[in-house]
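Bench notes, afternoon.
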Amino acid sequence: MNGKYLYFAIAALFGVLSALSKFLPFFLLQVFVLYLLYIYKRFSTLQLTSITVCFLIFFFIGLHSNSINKSVIPAPTTTFTLQYTQDPKIDGDLLQVQAIEQRYKERVLIRYKISSEQEKTNLKTEMFYQRLCTVSGTLEKPAIAKNPNAFNYRAYLMRKNIYWIIEVQENPLQHCIPLKPSPLVIIKQLRYTGINYLESHFPVEIASLSAALIFGDTNLFDPDVLSAYQKTGLVHLLAISGLHVSLLIAMVFYLGVRFGLTRQFMINFLLIILPIYVILTGSSPSVIRSGLMIFVVLLTVKWRTRLKLLPLDAISLAFIAYLIVSPMVVFDAGFQLSFAVSLVIILSANSILTDYANHLTRMLATSLVAQLGALPFLLYHYFEVSLIGIIANLVYIPLFSFLYLPGLYLLFFIQFIFGTTPPFLTKFFLIMITVANHLIEYLADFTFFHFTPGRPNLILLITYILLLLAIFYLWESKTYPKRKAFLIFLSIMLVISQKSWNWLSPYGEVTMIDVGQGDSILIHFPHSKGTYLIDTGGTMHFAEEKWRERAEPFEVGRDVVVPFLKGKGITQIDKLILTHGDMDHIGGTVSIIKELKVKQIIMPAVVEPSSTELDIIKEAKKLNIPVIKVSAGDQWTNEENGFFIVSPEKDYKGERNGGSIAFIAQLGGVSWFFGGDLDQAGEEKIIHQFPHLHIDVLKAGHHGSKTSSADTFINQIKPKVALISAGENNRFGHPHQEVLKRLEKTNTIIFRTDLQGAITYKFYHQKGTFYPYLP
């Protein structure tokens, strides 16, 4: 069976996906695989039957997992008995911790807003394990995705069997009784204690990296540094993976043998401590995958006369074992990337990588193989990849493997045993880590190396997989005619296929993005002939005490608008139209102009810009982005689409909302009115100036406030459709019932982001249709 366990792993994968995703496509894929095995591999009837049985077993495992994936806690429940199961996460004044509700035996997520700095200090030192606590709180559903390609927090938690967030109003450790510790809890407690020990005894640069490499925790990292690792494609080095586990196991094995212990004793010892190590390092998918593989390999060595396995068999058996225990993990990005990258490296080890005798070129080839294996998953989950990571790996993999990993373990044990660390060692590692972090942040800014085609659809995903299979086949082949020319051609196709799809698309769109209580509207023309963004949304931040500040506060431009645009493969904005100076309309601008290429910023020609507008102008000047001030009468066209500005008058001096840029656009065969937060007085001026104005689609002013959308204005323009951007359950009561009634009187169809998420008008030439993201 050597090398054949892979086909059972494929059957297990298709079986689970048939149950949890779509049955017919994955069932047909499994039939196709069986046909190939029969024709080309000459599998016997018994072997094909065994693989089919494996498919059916995992199909029923998936069905069972799906059937029990639901909550049993009644929604009105307000009192809970909890046993905490994970390390608490404290960010500013917010504490989050997972627990099991003991009456219903169901996982929940606890959220608590810390009331004082002293309480925060106490909670950081408190042990959450080995306690049974009674708390009062309200059950809240996790947030859902309300924009295309957005992160769906509710689905993410459901795959971890968490269906409720409990918002508690008092300290979650206030009413607790002690529990008898279990071995699992003791190991988790050691991990939590170890992370806190690092944080309190080392500089933050050393503590954060040590926590990642020793305990698999990245919560101590500066968000900017962590973001730089992600952008450069090096974040895998911060996750404990096969490389880390293998090096650690090899070090322990070598030291044990050098101290006179037998090889058999060390193998048995490692088989015992490996599961403990997996728990101690956080049990992430990459750690579990590495642990399972090494466990299987150690068993092979232990029973070498009875059990012989190839590395391919080891990863296949690890995959099967993981899916048996947790079939829902198949949707986890870390699980997908860990197994995909490991698989392609194993498959390439004895064919492609053996062609490179030089150590440097072999490392480069390995890095490229890993990047290619990860490509479809990176694009699907993160919409972009950094090509600079292929080169950066040549520096950072040796740095992590041979300096950071052994060195930081050494620092930790010296500090733990002797209570102090030699200053020269601490200073050496502090300098090395600081320099490496600055370098990674510098490399992350090289946007030239970022490949951002957007999230691939099913057809493009299949295209990527077929192209990658062809590339690996030709790379491995030594005799294929014109091999290098075909490899270059396929590589070019890999890069341009999705970009070409975007360029060739004859469809345009206008999307009102759900940015909560704010405005942001995308206009994207067919064949990528232009992209406009009207406003950017914005998040109000109020001055808080230092201890309350989050490490990375939510920012709508960075966290909503940029991912939305990148998910569509949009990296350039031709016109960024900022209607007026209110934070909820332009607060996300700085994040957007730093992340994306903006060719032009348009602002209203007002006498007194807001402080936020002045900050944007200053940042735009640094980035050499021209800022154009516009007023009534300005206009431009894009192909058959026209834009005509009707407000404000030049050098406007009045109230800020009244000075909003308002313009009429002809898009997709219909006429649009975009007016920012234009008030009723501004609307009256427009209909007085244009008494025969009729509009098909109205972007309702000021989020549906009764200060806009006046009766006279609505009755004259008679919109067929109104778009209202408002935050869910916002404190302003937007949209106002009076405005909704005005629109209903004219039989206007109303779309609202607070109820329906993003609203998209997709058009082809002069015809289009509205699609709300939520039904």
